[in-house]
Amino acid sequence: MPTTTALSQAQELCDTLTDDADELIREIITRLTDKWSLWVMHVLATTDRPMRFSRVMEQVEGISQKSLTKTLRQLERDGLVTRKMFAEVPPRVEYAITPIALEMFEHVEPLWLWVAKSVTLFQSAREAFDGRGK
Amino acid sequence: MPTTTALSQAQELCDTLTDDADELIREIITRLTDKWSLWVMHVLATTDRPMRFSRVMEQVEGISQKSLTKTLRQLERDGLVTRKMFAEVPPRVEYAITPIALEMFEHVEPLWLWVAKSVTLFQSAREAFDGRGK
DNA sequence: CAGTATCCAGATCGATACTG
DNA sequence: CAGTATCGATCTGGATACTG
B62's torsion region: left (phi>0), alpha (psi -120 to 50) or beta? Predict the structure, then answer.
C-alpha cells in the first residue's frame, strides 16, 4: 500500500505497540467521550488555578458527587489532574489541570472544531436516513 | 478572558450551537470511542472498495452479528458509510466508507498519534498513582 | 447471506443516606 | 467539606436461535 494517506502513519505506529499500550490508548481516548471527563477538565483548564471539590461540582452542572469523585480519580490516575489534600478541619482538597492535559486539549480541539463545523452535514445525513423510513 | 489559548476558539463556536447540534456533535465524537465503530471504519477505509457484511465481519475480529449490524446502521445514519443492497438470492449487501468519514479520519489521526506517542507518559502516571497504594 | 429476536451479564450513572 | 456505601434504572454488548 502506498504511504499517501493519513492512515499509513497510524498503521506503522500501531504495529510497534504492545497490547497494554494499545488498551491504555483506548482508555485515554475514552476519557474524551465519557459523560463528564472533558467537562471537568475544561472547567479546571479555564479556571486555571487549583479548585476545591465543591467548586468543581458547582461548575459542572448536573454531576453527582459519586460521578465527580470517580471522574476526578480517573483523571488523576492518568496524570490529567492533580489532587492535593490539606490537613484541615473541615477538609480541603484542591484539584488542578496538568500540563499534559493542556497539551492533550491542543490535539482534541482541532477534531472537535471540525466536527462542530461539519455538524450541518451530519444533520442532513440523518434527515435523509430517517426520512427513508428506517 | 484573553483569546490566546486553543480553548477560546472552541468557546466561541460552542456558544453559537443549538442544543440539538451540541448533542449530535457528542454522538459523532462518541462513535470514535465505542467498541467497534473506528475499527469497522478503518477496515472499510483501508480496503477502499465496497465490502460485504460477512467480509467486514471477518476483518473485525471478535465482533458479533448483532454488534456489527448496529455499528453499521449508526455509521450509515451519520453518513460515515454507505449501504447498498442487491436484489439477489442469496442477498448481497455492500458497505463502503464515505468521503466525509475519510475527512474525519484526517482529524482523528493527529490526536490518536499524539496519545500513542505519549503513552509512556500515561503509563508512568498510572504506575505512580497505583504505587501510592490507592 | 444478512440479518432479526430474545435473553442475559456487566458496566455506568443518579439518588439517597451516611461518615471522618 | 469531601467523600464512601448502597440501591436501582438504564445502556451496552455477547451468545444463541431463528428467518426471508
Answer: left
Distance A37 CA to D11 C1' (A): 19
CB contact under 8 A, B107 and A111: yes
Nearest CA among A53, A66, A42 for reference residue A93: A53
- Please tell me which residue lies nearest to nucleotide C5, judged from CA to C1': B66
- Cα diameter, chain A: 64
User: Considering only CB atoms, which chain A residues are within 8 Å of B38?
Assistant: none
Whether A45 has its CB under 8 Å from any CB of chain B: the answer is: yes
| Position B12, amino acid | E
Count other C-beta atoms under 10 Å from residue B53's C-beta: 17
Q: Between chains, do B32 and A28 touch, taking CB under 8 Å as contact?
A: no
Amino acid identity at B56: V
Confidence of residue B12 (pLDDT cuts 50, 70, 90): confident
- Note the pLDDT of residue A12: 78
Would the pTM of this model clear 0.85, i.e. be above it?
Answer: yes
Angle at which helices B119-131 and A65-77 cross, to 10°:
120
Cα B64 to Cα B74: distance, rounded to the nearest angstrom? 15
Q: How far apart are CA B27 and CA A38, in angstroms?
A: 14
Q: How many residues does chain A have?
A: 134
